Q: What sequence folds into this?
């Protein structure tokens, strides 16, 4: 079995690689970094180490790589593959649509009845694979689209494993947390598909993706944004502060109430899920930087992502949203100078004012009660951040 994976980054090498390898896939990484490409080609394997006491290490074998700029080679690999996966960031999917379209085109040209191909965008967010399909389909001819409907599928998915930024001598080595979960929407798969070991196929993905995004990712980014305001550099440091932990727990109690009601979850089990996820943030065997978890605040503050969506849903259900409002306000203060979206966000606030940003980036009109509550909380967070912050906090790496 052959897989083509876009992105030889942390989740690509640290999660998708080992899972597919366990199911005997040969993996071709489509990558940008020359050093990683040549190392993957020469060595054909790389180590994945678990962040636990014993640092258990496995070798992911049968791997190679192609350069993303070599569109012919990428298309040829896709034409021969059983599976295409991505982990490059939701907003980067647009950039690979052309390569995928060329791959599908070539695959359909080669034979009348091609083998089924599944294309799965393993990005944090709702509906990633279908979003990718919407970017790829306009690049196909109408006749190709019709045939692609029969032989190519884009099932949505949920992936969960914390893989921090890597700092090893070996550019391929990756250290990951032991926990991992991969869930795929079964109805999105083509008939007779081959199961990937360790993947759960479910009839309804919504409860899984919302539970993960609005617990793991909402909690994670809340810890990052609250922690940033308090001057911390890592998630582990931030969450060790009882005040930050209580703020995060408050946020997760609010998303939890919403999720429990919406998806009819068992509230006791959900409480245990929250505690288990919070515990993951404290893993002492690796360092997870706040600037990684807080990255791309405009994406994280967008209407369908981990902060605004649960806040709007909870509000609509008449539930508490005070902690979510505080987390959104803290995200609006995030001003890390090396994060292009943070810079854009701060420029937008400076140029147009906080009300404009809440309306236009967060998608909350000024007639909505959350609008003024976020604006007021932002003023409060912003003033305490400025008055307490050391100047060098603005240039943390
Ligand atoms: N790291 C985690 O803990 C984790 C867990 C679950 C999901 N995710 C999701 O996986 C995706 C990747 O995250 P990551 O942490 O591995 O990031 P990363 O930065 O380590 O890896 C991203 C890779 O994508 C490549 N890339 C970026 N922009 C690209 C573009 N425009 N075209 C082609 N390639 C491009 C980069 O070169 C890099 O190799 C994100 O959507 C993230 O939300 C991450
Ligand atoms: O990757 P992002 O930027 O969407 O979110 C940052 C982290 O919260 C995220 O990468 C988690 O580590 C991951 O989603 C855990 O499964």
A:
């Amino acid at each position: 079995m052959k897989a083509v994976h876009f992105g030889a980054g942390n989740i690509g090498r640290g999660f998708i690689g080992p899972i597919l390898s366990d199911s005997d896939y040969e993996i071709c990484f489509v990558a940008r970094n020359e050093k990683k490409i040549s190392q993957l080609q020469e060595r054909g394997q790389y180590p994945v180490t678990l962040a636990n006491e014993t640092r258990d290490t496995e070798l992911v074998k049968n791997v190679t790589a192609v350069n993303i700029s070599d569109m012919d080679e990428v298309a040829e690999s896709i034409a021969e593959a059983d599976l295409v996966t991505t982990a490059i960031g939701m907003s980067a999917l647009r950039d690979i649509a052309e390569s995928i379209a060329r791959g599908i085109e070539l695959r359909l040209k080669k034979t009348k009845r091609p083998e089924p191909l599944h294309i799965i965008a393993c990005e944090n967010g709702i509906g990633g694979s279908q979003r990718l399909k919407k970017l790829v389909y306009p690049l196909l001819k109408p006749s190709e689209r019709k045939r692609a409907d029969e032989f190519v599928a884009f099932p949505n998915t949920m992936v969960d494993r914390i893989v921090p930024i890597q700092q090893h001598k070996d550019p391929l080595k990756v250290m990951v947390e032991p926990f991992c979960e991969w869930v795929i929407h079964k109805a999105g798969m083509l008939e007779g598909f081959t199961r990937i070991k360790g993947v759960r196929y479910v009839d309804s993905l919504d409860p899984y993706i919302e539970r993960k995004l609005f617990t793991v990712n909402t909690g994670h980014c809340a810890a990052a944004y609250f922690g940033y305001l308090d001057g911390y550099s890592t998630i582990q440091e931030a969450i060790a502060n009882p005040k930050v932990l209580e703020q995060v727990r408050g946020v997760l109690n609010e998303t939890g109430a919403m999720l429990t009601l919406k998806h009819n979850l068992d509230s006791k089990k959900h409480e245990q899920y929250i505690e288990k996820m919070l515990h993951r943030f404290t893993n002492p065997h690796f360092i997870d930087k706040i600037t990684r978890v807080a990255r791309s605040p405009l994406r994280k503050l967008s209407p369908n992502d981990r902060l605004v969506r649960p806040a709007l849903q909870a509000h609509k259900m008449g539930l508490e949203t005070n902690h979510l409002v505080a987390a959104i306000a803290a995200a609006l203060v995030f001003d890390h100078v090396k994060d292009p979206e943070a810079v854009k966000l701060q420029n937008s606030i400076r140029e147009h004012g906080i009300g404009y940003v809440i309306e236009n980036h967060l998608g909350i009109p000024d007639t909505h009660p959350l609008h003024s509550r976020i604006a007021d909380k932002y003023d409060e967070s912003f003033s305490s951040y400025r008055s307490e912050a050391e100047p060098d906090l603005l240039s943390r790496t």
Remarks:
- The radius of gyration is 21 Å.
- The pocket of nicotinamide-adenine-dinucleotide (ligand 1) is lined by residues 7-12, 32-33, 68, 87-90, 92, 95-96, 123-124, 159, 161-163 (CB under 6 Å).
- Confidence is low (pLDDT under 50) at residues 391-397.
- The first helix runs from residue 10 to 22.
